[in-house]
Amino acid sequence: MSEEIKEKSLNFIEEIVVADLKSGKHSGRLLTRFPPEPNGYLHIGHAKSICLNFGLTQDYGGGTNLRFDDTNPVTEDTEYVESIKNDVKWLGFNWVNEYYASDYFDQLFKFAKKLITKGLAYVDDSSSEEMAALKGTPSQPGTDSPYRNRSIDENLQLFESMANGEFKEGSKVLRAKIDMASSNMLMRDPIIYRIKFAHHHRTGDKWCIYPMYDFAHGQSDSIEGITHSICTLEFVSHRELYDWFLEKLEIFPSRQYEFARLNLTYTVMSKRKLLQLVNEKYVTGWDDPRMPTISGMRRRGYPAKAIVDFCDRIGIQKRDNLIDVSLLEFFVRENLNKTATRVMAVFNPLKVTITNFPTEVGSIECTLENNPEIPESGSRSLNFTKELWIEKDDFMENPPNKYFRLSPGKMVRLKGAFIIQCDEVVHDENGEVTELKCSYIPTSKSGQDESGIKVKGVIHWLPATESIEAEIRMYERLFKVEDPSSEEGDFKDFINEDSLVTIKAYVEPTLPSFDGETRFQFIRNGYYAPDLDSTPEKLIFNKTVGLKEGFKI
RNA sequence: UGGCUGAUGGUGUAAUGGCAACACAGAGGUUUUUGGUGCCUUUAUUCCAGGUUCGAGUCCUGGUCGGCCAACCA
Question: Which pLDDT does position A2 carry in this prediction?
């Protein structure tokens, strides 16, 4: 095997990992984690993080934990836990451990008391307004809280009482005692525990105090022995605090590294905004095929591999980015081109009557290949009959130059069947074309063409009486502007009202026999996937993505 | 008027002091029983000003512009 090993350039995090492994840091151990908060569904931005974290340990050894960052019981729910696990698995990744920050509540409580004991935390009775007022601004230092110098004993006692439910929600918090004049706002005595009389999805009513993110995340990393804790750029300023806690608590020094989150054109990526779209019914749910969620993309028909390939291609960097959604669509098409079963569907039927059809025959069986990219994929049959449907767009009475579909007097091949010639155009009283009378060339059958006729155009068709109806959900981008979040005003003002158009179409009669996992290419049209709600009795297809458009009139 | 962070074609990503490359998007051609696919060609890039160096996208200095930071969210 002297295969040329292509030199892959490493992203900056891989470089760090490789260097750490080489230097023997943590005895060469590598452990990452993917830490979602179970308060929403995963989206394509999370996929980037998933591919990074799991990809690192796939490439360099070690493992990745799935850890739910469930420190805020009022927004979190097991529904989200289940969807997140399902989505990670669907993308093709396996975690070594499933953990919850709430698993560490007892330990975190002890850590807090240790901080108090070291004189590094205190209970503050200030209201949130008072605290905000004393916090200062990024360019002006804050002021010490009047409660900042309580004794260690008093703090310990007060904190225990907080945990025992002796104080009202919002009346007291535990704060780290750091530096109210720090240029980093997060170091100005951050709140580390607050009172919430809320039912937690895992710990139930055991606690009425819950740690803040900053007091849970780094410690959870440390407890698990995470070597590389990877997060997005907005956490850069949290790193100083992250390190401070680990140092003062004298626990395993996990390290945090930050990369730029993914932004995609014509969509929004914050969970807050996505939740709003769901709650306010702009979409049908988290898994609406227009959503940038993993479940939405899955429902739309995006293959997991296309998403992973996309994430590999966009790379990992620290600069803000806005990636063209057409790059994602490229990977979807690339994948589906190799896997989708080719079938024919007619969206806007125009009747074609074959005037010279041998009526004594009834129908002529034609054989169509399932996928030209995969010769072994086999074939299926479709009947060529006297009355057919073709697409309205495939006929023009007065065609422009270079239009090589059907027009009066011209010939075209019906895909997988015969060459036909348009002899007569039938109009209604408004001048609309209602029917084409055509003759077919009996010797031109696909695969055994002896006619010697060469035609430029090939169009799709269906037997009029044998094709069946299906509901087609046509999706377009959810927003009318490239970057809804950066526009002035409410992002919802830029929603594309035509992002879902439901239509009826005719499809081949064999379609009900395929299972729900089959991905289709409606020839010359696009890729389509059976919707979750589709049944053999009522077929429903989601438009995954269109084919690249060539000729435009 | 603070701190942190970043800047390479239209969009992304590489080049680790030595010919600025790859993908997507765009344009053109070719093949094709999908105006798809494949194949070929092509347009277009180092934020600015100095400096170091034989040589700078890369190193240094100073600017400019962008992003993040003042939730009892994560």
Answer: 30
ipTM of model: 0.97
Contact A237, A95 (CB under 8 A): no
Protein chain A, residues 520-549, with a C-beta closer than 7 Å to any atom of nucleic acid strand B: 521, 523-524, 547-549
Could you tell me the strand order of the sheet in which A500-507 lies?
A341-343, A520-522, A526-530, A540-546, A468-475, A500-507, A345-346
Separation between the CA of A286 and the C1’ of B13 (whole angstroms):
31
The interaxial angle of helices A304-314 and A44-60, nearest 10 deg, is 80
User: Would the pTM of this model clear 0.90, i.e. be above it?
Assistant: yes
Q: Which of residues 269-298 of A touch strand B (CB under 7 A)?
A: 272
Q: In this predicted model, what pLDDT tens digit does every residue of A231-275 receive, in sequence order?
A: 999 999 999 999 999 999 999 999 999 999 999 999 999 999 999
Cα–Cα distances (Å) from A71 to A74, A102, A200, A209, A257, in that order, read 9, 7, 9, 10, 22
Length of chain A: 553
CA of A482 to C1' of B25 (A): 14
Report angle CA A367, A368, A370 to the nearest 5 degrees: 135
SS3 of A467, please? Answer: coil
A364-384 burial, b at 16+ Cβ within 10 Å, e below that, comes to bebebbbbeeeeeeeebebbb
CA end-to-end span of chain A, whole Å?
A: 52
Active-site residue, A261 included: yes
Q: How far is the CA of A297 from the C1' of B58 (A)?
A: 40
Closest C1' nucleotide to A482's CA:
B11
What type of residue sits at position A314?
Answer: I
What is the helix (H) or strand (E) element at residue A411, kind and residue range? strand A411-414
Q: Which H helix or E strand runs over A305?
A: helix A304-314
